[in-house]
Structures are given as C-alpha cells and as structure tokens.
Amino acid sequence: MGEFELIRNFFAAAPCAQVGEGVALGIGDDCALLDVPFGEQLAISTDTLVAGVHFADPCDPFLLGQRSLAVAASDLAAMGATPLAFTLALTLPAVEADWLEAFARGLNLMAQGCGLRLIGGDTTRGPLCLTLTVFGRVPRGQALTRSAARPGDLLCVGGELGNAAGALPLVLGQRSATPAIAEPLLAHYWSPQPQLALGQALRGKASSALDISDGLLADCGHIALASKVRLLIENDRIPVSLALQEFLGDADAQQAALSGGDDYVLAFTLAAVELPTLLADGWPIHVIGRVVEGQGVGLLDVHGQDITPTIRGYQHFRSE
Ligand code: ADP
Ligand code: MG
C-alpha cells in the first residue's frame, strides 16, 4: 500500500475527516481552509508523541489514537477554546493495515467526542512518532492565558489528580491490580477526557488556566511565573481517587497527585465571587489553594506549615 492509498483508506475516509462547520476545505489539497467567524481568534497547539518516550512501544494502536488526540485537545480546553480541527503528522516504521485501522478508529472516536475534524497532515517512514496540531476558536480577548492570576484569587482544579501517573506501572506491566482498581486508573491514562466544556465555561471568569500535563506542582509553577504571583496549595484539599489510594497507599497517591504527569485536568485561578455560580451550574471544581503575592509554588499541610517538596514534574533535557 502506497502513501496516498494509506491516507485515503485510513484517514481521508474517516467520519472525522469530512468537511463541516468551520472547515471549508479538508484533506486532499495543498492546504486546508478554516473559517474563523468575525470577532474570534484561532487557538493553535502542537504536541509530539514519540514511541518509547511518551507511550510504551509496542502499545494498543486504538488506545494510542484516542490518547494522542485527547492530549492535544486538552490544550484547547486550557485556553477555553471551542474545538475546530486538527492535523496529523504520522511517522511509521512500516505500513500495517491492522495497526492503522485500529489507530484511525481510536483517533476518530476521540475526534468525534471532542468535535474536532481531521483536515490534513503528513505521512512519512521512520521510527513511530505522531505530531498533532489542534485548532480551536475563541471570542477575541477571552482566551484563558497563564498570566493574569491575581493575589486573592482562588486556585482550583477540575477533577481528581494522579490517576494517570498511578496507572503507569500497570501500563508498563510492572504491577497488576484488581479490575476495580486497574480499570479506572487505566481509563484515565488511555482516554483522558479533555475538559473542553469546563474550559469554555471558565471564559470571562477564570483569571488564568492550564491543563496539568507535567504534574500539579510543576504546572502551577508556570502560572506563578507567568502571572508574577505565588500559588499556595493546601495538601489535604487535593482531590485523589479511592482507586489510587487503594493501589498506591496514601503517601504515594498524594505524591502522584502532586508530581505525576498526564492528568490533563484543568488547573485555574478565579476571583472568589465567580465560584458560587460555577458550582451551582454543576462544574466539577475543587478549590485547592489561593494566590498570594510573591513567586513560586508552596505546599501547606493542614496546620498551614510549609511542606513544599523539591521534586518537580518531568522535563525533557533536564540536566540533573
Ligand atoms: P503535499 O505533498 O502537498 O504536502 P501530501 O502528499 O503530503 O501533500 O498529502 C496529501 C494530502 O493528504 C494533504 O491534504 C495532506 O494534508 C493529507 N495528509 C497526509 N498525511 C495525512 C495524515 N496522516 N492524516 C491526514 N491527512 C493527511
Ligand atoms: Mg506533505
């Protein structure tokens, strides 16, 4: 099967690759064409996933398709953007029809769940690697950036943390667990649900936001730096799942919630007056701390004592 047949069979023919609202021209020409309504801005983000670095190799291609798009779409959620489209640059060691069929199926499922249309890409031979670029739209000036957190704001997260990091020993086959524990943890790892609706609900309300990909402490550090403030996190207010606590024990579960990556849950700051309406509307918001003057991130125990650890999230190329 040649490159063009591959693109046609597995990608251009997928339901998520058909033109529709916001996409004037999709796969097949030199460029795709997007319609951006007047008064809106394009939000764009790229993520690369390398076999053996970002996912185990070999792994289930269906789950990989799902997860790679979820990870990319999570950046749209973090900006409060409405999903529009995505491109896929795929580097493959060989053409295996079964692998491609399952990968495209997982990708399509997540694309349709997120409201993202596949509008193009590139297909090359080499070690397995995926680059996804997502496009969203957001009313001009309303994107949720990292740089406007203010002292006095509350620090919040959109759900339980640490589940994906907890799942890693299961993914790598280093440990096993009963289905009651393994299933929810693995689901968080393989099909994270980008918090797109929550991100859009936070437009005009949150003062800053991001999606937690490198761990709560490390990612809160990004908001602190960009906003020139200090974020104080209360350790006992961080939501941790029962499955994670049972699997790792309390101390390691807490560690996974603080420093484990891959959660793709939103972390954001907002003025306290915004909270009651958001909670009344049913959004899964957990207040875990507050913004104060200063810099960096601090972790507090129940007595308000500083217990900030020195270990932070994962960084490529970090020399240690
Ligand atoms: P060009 O040579 O003009 O860059 P290509 O031959 O690489 O075009 O690709 C042909 C068409 O197929 C283009 O519209 C491109 O965006 C699309 N395409 C290529 N690879 C993929 C892929 N993996 N998924 C989706 N679309 C793809
Ligand atoms: Mg090309």
TrEMBL record:
Annotated binding of Mg(2+) 2, by residue: D47, D75
- Chain residues that bind Mg(2+) 4: D30, S45, D75
Q: Name one Pfam family in it.
A: AIRS_C
Q: Where does Mg(2+) 1 bind?
A: T46, D47, D122
Q: In which pathway does it act?
A: Cofactor biosynthesis; thiamine diphosphate biosynthesis; thiamine diphosphate from thiamine phosphate: step 1/1
- In this chain, Mg(2+) 3 is annotated as bound at D30, D75, D211
Domain PurM-like C-terminal, residue spans = 150-299
Q: Which residues are listed for ATP binding in this entry? A: G121, D122, R146, S213
Q: Which reaction does it catalyse?
A: thiamine phosphate + ATP = thiamine diphosphate + ADP
Give the keywords, sorted. Answer: ATP-binding, Kinase, Magnesium, Metal-binding, Nucleotide-binding, Thiamine biosynthesis, Transferase
Residues binding substrate, per UniProt: H54, D262, Y314
Instruction: Summarize where Mg(2+) 5 binds, as residue positions.
Output: D214
Q: EC number(s)?
A: 2.7.4.16
Q: Which GO terms describe its biological process?
A: thiamine biosynthetic process; thiamine diphosphate biosynthetic process
Name the family: Belongs to the thiamine-monophosphate kinase family.
This one is known as: Thiamine-monophosphate kinase
Gene giving rise to this polypeptide = thiL
